Automatic annotation (TrEMBL):
Signal peptide bounds: none
Family note: Belongs to the azoreductase type 2 family.
Organism superkingdom: Bacteria
Protein name: NAD(P)H-dependent FMN reductase
InterPro entries in alphabetical order: Flavoprotein-like_sf (IPR029039), FMN_Rdtase-like_dom (IPR005025), NAD(P)H-dep_reductase (IPR050712)
Domain NADPH-dependent FMN reductase-like: 1-141
Organism expressing this protein natively: Paenibacillus qinlingensis
Length: 183
C-alpha cells in the first residue's frame, strides 16, 4: 500500500516531523511504500486561486504523491490553536480527488499538554476534502516531545508513548487497507 506522510512544519527540528518519520518507520516495517514529504525541506509556493496550472517542481511532486497515495498522514505542530500555515497552504493546493475515500491519520505536537485544536482543524479539512478520518489521532505534548527530539533515537521513545503510537498506527493501517480494498 502507498502511504504519503506530509510533515507540515517550518522548523528544521520539529518534533511533529520526527513523529512523522517514526510513523514512516513503523509502516515500512509492515512492508508499505511510504513517502515522507517534509514541507520545511521542500517548501511549496503560496496558494492562489488566480494561479492555475502552477508548474513548480515541488508542487507537482506533492500533488502526484497525494494523488497516488492509498492513505495519508498529516503532521503538524500546533500554532496558536491550529495547524501550521505551511500545512494549510499545502492542503489548499489539492482537492477532493487527492483525498476521496482515503484513510487519513492526523498527528500533532504541542508545547502544551495536547494539541486538540490543530487535530480538530485537520480533521475538518479532511472531511471537506472527502477523506476518511481515522477515528483516533496522535498528539504529543510537553515532556512527551523529548522522545522525538532530533538527538533522540527511536529506541529512546517512552514505552507508554510508543505503545499508544503503535496501536493507533495499526488501527490506521487496518482502516487504510479496508478502504483501499486490500483487506
Amino acid at each position: 500500500m502507498k502511504i504519503t506522510i506530509v510533515a507540515g512544519s517550518n522548523h528544521s527540528a520539529a518534533t511533529s516531523t520526527r513523529l512523522a518519520a517514526y510513523i514512516q518507520h513503523l509502516a515500512m516495517q509492515e512492508q508499505h511504500d511510504v513517502a515522507l514529504l517534509d514541507l520545511f525541506r521542500t517548501p511549496l509556493p503560496f496558494y492562489s486561486p488566480e494561479v492555475e496550472g502552477d508548474t513548480h517542481p515541488a508542487l507537482e511532486a506533492f500533488k502526484r504523491a497525494m494523488l497516488s497515495a492509498d492513505a495519508i498522514v498529516l503532521a503538524t505542530p500546533e500554532y496558536h490553536s491550529g495547524m501550521s500555515g505551511v500545512l494549510k497552504n499545502a492542503l489548499d493546493h489539492v482537492g477532493q480527488d487527492h483525498f476521496k475515500n482515503k484513510a487519513v491519520l492526523s498527528i500533532s505536537s504541542s508545547g502544551g499538554a495536547v494539541a486538540v485544536s490543530s487535530l480538530t482543524q485537520m480533521q475538518t479539512t479532511v472531511r471537506n476534502l472527502h477523506g476518511i478520518n481515522c477515528p483516533e489521532w496522535i498528539s504529543i505534548g510537553g515532556d512527551q516531545r523529548k522522545s522525538f527530539r532530533v538527538d533522540a533515537s527511536f529506541e529512546d521513545i517512552q514505552p507508554d508513548i510508543d505503545k499508544r503510537i503503535r496501536r493507533v498506527v495499526g488501527s490506521f493501517l487496518t482502516l487504510a487497507e479496508q478502504l483501499s480494498g486490500r483487506a
